[in-house]
Amino acid sequence: MKLGCYGCRLAVVLIALFAFQGPALTQALNPATLLDPPVDSWPTYHGTYSGQHHSRLAQITPANVHELTLVWAFETGYAAQIKSTPILVNGILYVTTPDNVWALDARSAHPVWHYTYPPNQGLHIGHRGVAVYNDSVYFTTPDAHLISLDARDGKVKWDVVIADVKKGYWTTMAPLVIRDHILVGTSGDFDNLPGMLKSMDPETGDTQWTFYSTLPRETPEAFSGGATGGNMWITGTYDPGLNLVYVGTGNPTPVLAAQARPGDNPWTCSIVALNPDNGELVWGFQPSPHDTHDWDAVEVPVLVNGKFKGTPRKMLLQASRNGYFFVLDRTTGKSLLSTPFAAVNWSAGVDKDGRPIPNAAKEPTRDGRLIAPDEGGATNYRSPSFDAQTGLFIVSAQDSYGIYFSKPEHGDYGWAGADYGLFGKGMLRAIDYQTGKIRWTHDLGGGASSAGVLTTDAGLTFTGDSVGSVLALRTADGTTLWHSRIGHVGNSPITYELDGRQYVLVASGGTLYAWALPDRPFAIKRGSPSH
Amino acid sequence: MTSSPSHWLRVTVGDSLAVVLCISVAALCSSQSFAAQGFGNQRTGALKDGGGNSVAQAPMEEDRPGQDQASQPAQTATPQFYPREQVQTGQSLFAAQCSFCHGRDAAGGEIGPDLTISELVEKDVGGNEIGPVVRSGRTDKGMPPFNLADADLVAIVAFIHDQKIKMVSKQGRRRTVQAEDLQSGNAEEGKQYFNGAGGCSKCHSPGADLAGVANRLRGLALLRRMLYPAGNRGANPAAAAATVTVTLPSGQTVTGKLAYRDEFVIGLTDSSGWYRSWSKSRVKFAVNNPLQAHIEQLGKYTDDAMHNVLAYLQTLH
User: Less crowded by CB within 10 Å, the N or C end of chain A?
Assistant: First the structure.
């Protein structure tokens, strides 16, 4: 079930291929190690290329998790919430907020360096994290630049423009490293802008290729029925065997004005499979054809190998913001399963290709339409987790309702309408990916939670509730085993092992917390996990 | 000055309380993770009960970015420019006197319309249209008269025109909803639904709690209150005027307003005004959430039924 299996074999080949790049000893991260990351690292946004947000670590168990103790807390001292996933390479943690990168000693939280980007006009909406390649740290900025920093001291190596902030673009994405490609995507909902994913040269910042999910409306080659948008603002996943990168695309623009852009509006609200060497589209699948509710399909495309209804498959799983859970064959993009995982009232069923059929009567109108889910969606961008032992896809979900308005006077530019959330109820849901059935549900105590999900081989699930606790649950049934009321968890938890000790990291507000079992003499007797 | 020590003490205590209140409000805001992001949704958060911040409980950020950062070239048909100092003065006055209904950016709240797209503001030159409305009010629509010095009124007018220039230049921003947009329902059918299939009359009566509701709320504010009266304060019943009865190990019961609830702790405000809490594992409790029927109704409404009930409520003057 693990990517690591064929990843290992491929790693041998690729390490040989990368050998010419010079001695690896002094490098922070040889990109070939991303194929099978060691447990003392969390070297890329999803931890591994699969996007499973799962760790093989098993020192913290259901039996001892109640002993967890705070090892350290790091306060940024800024009001901005940490939404980013920390990246751990070579004993150094890299954590971000808009305009800021901190490099921290992963053992002590001692700040090794702090980089601050100059004041700028871009939208400071959030930041997902950095990427690391060899000795460089890659950081996207609110005004849509990509910065290469020296991983040792945070000094700027180069600074290139990804997209034009004056047109309305911004960036928040944690770049994805695939061999010698740095993949970065853009954001922008208030202007009718094409969605872009760019591949940059890690040494120079030169653009290697650009994939456009849509084109400007007036261009003859435009293929999206008058829609723009489809921005790619969450880090994709990668199958080294198929050499395909999978990326979710955002909503179309104009956002709520349905009549301005008839048809399915490809490739907005889509999952696209691209060749990372040239950016060519291999296949695309649309979770939300002709979206009119701002339901980006950027949620993590999680890669799973296993049997589906008895047949071995390479699969892609997504719990999408529109309330549907999808299982695709990731070689071909063909649907294997499409089923709701939360309250949904906007579709008229599913078509023969597994795509939900948008009900025209639920498009935004002058007098308003009552829609489930609301604009925040049945889930959002923070990471779900896949646990191979139980076959569970665990996602922070909500059942919610909103009202959506749009009228001709709102025009056909940018938002082009108005919408308001009414009510939402947050639930952690464990989906059996073979059937789409909900195996268990854990009440999160309020509206949607702002926490992602982490599972481990010990059978633990870490997440945050909607009231303000970080939780450890038993993966098999969702029972609470430990909690601490540190405030709302605002990012996706990660875990790693240093000096034989397993750490679990979560952020709340502007503070990053590290938990572990008590550092007692007998701790050394605990078996260290096998690699 | 005639202040006595006791008077000074009262003021001090009052200020301290105000500080405490501010802190708790700030804590509430920061607990809603998006609040510090400065999104446009905040401007719609002015229900008269002091609640109902329209920002949904979900962490929307990337997904519901506001309009305050967009950057398009400014353009408007007949822009009226005023001195910067006057606009700034007007901004302060507007924030204090007008923003509660019209939003801090004058682009509309739940009660007051978006002034930046108002026809009256479009026609206004130097306050000739705005001034009389501010002075006289529009009591039929819930706007009271304001007794303002001439200079202050001119400053407010300057701010409104300045905002109009700014907002019109932000083409792609979120838009607003006018009460006229919401008049598609049939009041008679709404009344039938209210008394029949909708089950509304089990808890509500046009002669009691809903008497005159159309005078207190209109347009989008009325629609949203009708659908979920707690506003957007989340699914936690502590935010929804729920009550709870806690049974202690001794068998004694305590009933009060549900004040806090998470997976581990239950808290209430008792009849004497004290907050009390217990570990859930040590007590039994029963929560009565009067809004549960509204939550269930959200999954049952058709769009027609929703508009019909709104039409019916609009007849309850």
Answer: C
